[in-house]
Amino acid sequence: MPRQTPLDAPPSPAPGRTGPLASLRENPGFRALWVSNVFFFGGAWIQTMVLGWIVFETTRSELHLAVFTAVRLAPMLLGPFAGVLSDRYDRVRLLTLACGWALAAAATVSGLESLTHVPYWALVLGGLAIGLAQSPSQPARSALVLSLVGRRNLSNANALNAMAMNMTQVVGPALGGALISAFGAPAALWISSAWYAASLLALWPLRHTERGGTEQPAAAEPVVAMLVGGLRSVLRNRLAAAVLAVTLAANIFLWPVHQAFMPVFAKESLGLDADGLGWLLTCGGIGGLVGSLVMAALGDFRFKGGLFVYGTAAWAALWALFALSAMSGRLALSFALMAGIGVLSAAFGVLQTTLLLMTTEPAFQGRALGVQELAIGVMPLSSLGLGVAAEYLGVATTTFVSGLLLVLFLATLALRLPALPRYRGV
Q: Which pTM value belongs to this model?
């Protein structure tokens, strides 16, 4: 294992120094990464909302919106190869390259939207270019956390990262909706480009982190051999495979709804404009922020597996209730349920990565996270399937059925593999 520099070495925690912000207080390397994540995810959330709104305004088609989302998320399918890169090369350098690409891609889309009315096919290509910056960098981003903070503070640090995402989910959609209403979509897109530039600058203090947190020197082993070996190691581990199965199911049944169809819920079911959509997503972000703070405050708690399984099931049930409330046009209830969805999403979002890292050998952690990214990467295909279903059944009915199916899957998994809900991770 490489020698750690003072910046990235996980410090020995002082007695009594606990709390939801422990990793930020104690570790300057993680603090730099966290600030970079805030700006990176901020730019991503603004673009998710603004580009989705532009596409639906241009096409008025749920299926076209689903196709756009599928293409934008397609780079997730590169997850296993991104995991190999994370295990093989400097992770900080990989994140720097990703931020630079995101800045260039976002600025290009913003410039085109400022100069002309961008056709649908160009929006799809722009979404693909931005996705190529975001998704393949995730294994390096997540694996670097464990190298910076150590196993004891991993849950806390992952919760703080989830809090960063939810903070930007609060600010990004509301800011994007307000900017669309006040100045138009190009201004909102330029704001997101500026956020990527800030994310790139925030990585500067990590430039001397030795090998960017990789657990071992780059090997001469071929990339394909590393990929196959990593897949075998991860899938032979029943607990790690079960965690990945939950991630896969959630991204088949429900995450495409959040990524692709919220403009449809807002416009068709709830009668909201761009500002209203922004505030609806903001409610989910506020809930996610609260949930992440609770997860961070729990620290190295013992019921990680149970909270992951049962919390995810409760999250799916709330999605089914949200679909019913939107179908009946109950605006206040829909906003409240979206906040609850955000709270429970923290259990899934934080613990899917925490449990995967805890149940995987250090030499394979980047590749395990790459397989996780591949599981998330089914979202483009599931978006298309759900888009077809929504075109005929309606988005509310499709979401209601999807939520119930995920609850059924989790109940079956808990019965077949009780070791997962009992897993303590200590």
A: 0.70
